[in-house]
Amino acid sequence: AYLRAVPLRTEAVQTVKLVQQGAARHPDDPFALRATAWAELWYGDLAEARTRLDALLKCAPNDPDIRHMSGLCDVRMAYKSNDSQLFLRARGEFAAAHRLDESRAVSLFRYVECDLQLEKTMTPHMVDVLVTAYRIAPQVDPIALVSAQALIQHKRWDEAAFILRPLASAPHGGLNADRAKSFLQAAKTKEQASFAFFAAANRLDHEYE
């Protein structure tokens, strides 16, 4: 499962309506529950998403997608309420999702996001978790950028530069390439750079799963 942008709210209105209408005809169907939970998670009522996800977890507690969605719901609610217990619960859900499917780089990425909110610092262990996520999905720009920043914070300059070079050299350029160039310069000169957690789960535009 890779980190990818979901449609803007204005672009998703009709699709969400169709999902909700279709699911209403099959209220107990697991696929309908999953579809409406996803729609509510990003575009609707987080409490409603939580209700649907709880129902899904009772039926399929070992489904990594549902555990990841459960974590997303908790972390988005945590940002809205500034509730550390929700960040803690979300972190546990992302850990569970990764245990069930070790290819889930995005679950590791979200795990680190929650830990950063709880601990208010990037611990050495979380740096290693990010590096693991990067190794699973090196093509995902936010994972690469956040991993490199974490390595720079811990003065692991060469590892940061290794991650940043391909992105900084992207033939079509772009915002992430420019960010990578800036961080790469910091790694080369062994200087600290400002830290930003790109693609955080609390964003309300160009959200990421």
Strand content: under 5%
Structural class: mainly alpha
Total beta strands: 0
Overall spatial form: elongated
Q: Main β-sheet, in a few words? A: none
Explain what this protein looks like in three dimensions.
With 209 residues, this protein is mostly helical. Helices cover 70% and strands 0% of the residues. It has helices at residues 9-24, 30-43, 46-59, 64-81, 84-100, 105-119, 124-136, 141-153, 157-168, 175-189. Helix 8 (141-153) packs parallel to helix 10 (175-189) and helix 9 (157-168) packs antiparallel against helix 10. It is elongated and about 60 Å long. The model has no long low-confidence stretch (mean pLDDT 90).
Which descriptors apply to this entry?
mainly alpha; 209 residues; 10 helices
Could you give the topology of this structure?
Layout: H1 9-24, H2 30-43, H3 46-59, H4 64-81, H5 84-100, H6 105-119, H7 124-136, H8 141-153, H9 157-168, H10 175-189
Helix pairs in contact: 1-2, 2-3, 2-4, 3-4, 4-5, 5-6, 6-7, 7-8, 8-9, 8-10, 9-10
